[in-house]
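ok so i was messing around last nite and threw this chain in just to see what happens. nothing serious, just curious
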Amino acid sequence: MVLTRRDALRLGLGMSFVPLAGPVFAQDVNTIMRRVDERPEGDTAELRLTMILEDRRGNRRERRLRSFRKTYADRESLTLFVESPQEVAGTAFLSINPEGVGSAIDAWLYLPAMNRTRRVAQSNQSDNFMGSDFTYSDIIGLEIWDWNYEIESMSADVGGHDCWVITSTPKPEAASRVDDETGYSARRIWVRKDNYFVVRGEFTERTGGTVKLMLTNNVRRIGGIWTPDAITMATTRGGNLLSRSTIRFDDARYDHALADNLFTPDALVRGIR
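result:
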């Protein structure tokens, strides 16, 4: 999806800009980003997802996943299980995100073909997730206060909704960590004014000359929580499409009981029970 770290599969991001400087804009943009970060998303979430991978020639592959998220007093945990196709079924991913600016994320990936669980190092969290255009960091979410923000435009239309356009670059003191975790050197996001949902993003990668384009489709309320029908991330270079991945939200349930044992490294091997 930026996703902030509080947005389970929630994206957001940027490029070059002409800043509108001044203390009023600086205060306003931080208020906007705080509201993006604090947007209600439920204490728990269970999602059924379809990931569609497309190359530049239009060849498609599909993967079915289930996602579980639970917010605790001191952390947020996210587990993903791949259910199909057969060649990747059983692959599973876990992230545990402690509260607090600068806190290190713990993440693990289970690969059934190797029958082993490996830790995903911070320096690898900018890698592509399961061959898609989403990175581990896109799935886990961003620490929003690692970035400096500017309002590029006070009004822009996305799908008939009025949005702020906000650009950001890493804070100098967080640049090394941001580079390891995201691989992004600049971000531009479109934030809906009515619900503070990030509906569009442009993310410049530090290496490779690529820009990622993110777009959400039909954001609607499910159980009072704003949820997109789909999120698409396209990788481009020089304006040309290299590949594209879409996460489709087939079903979503919020604020129902989830067992704590879903959110441990052992659960990745055990699977959903």
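not much to say yet. The chain has one domain: 23-262.
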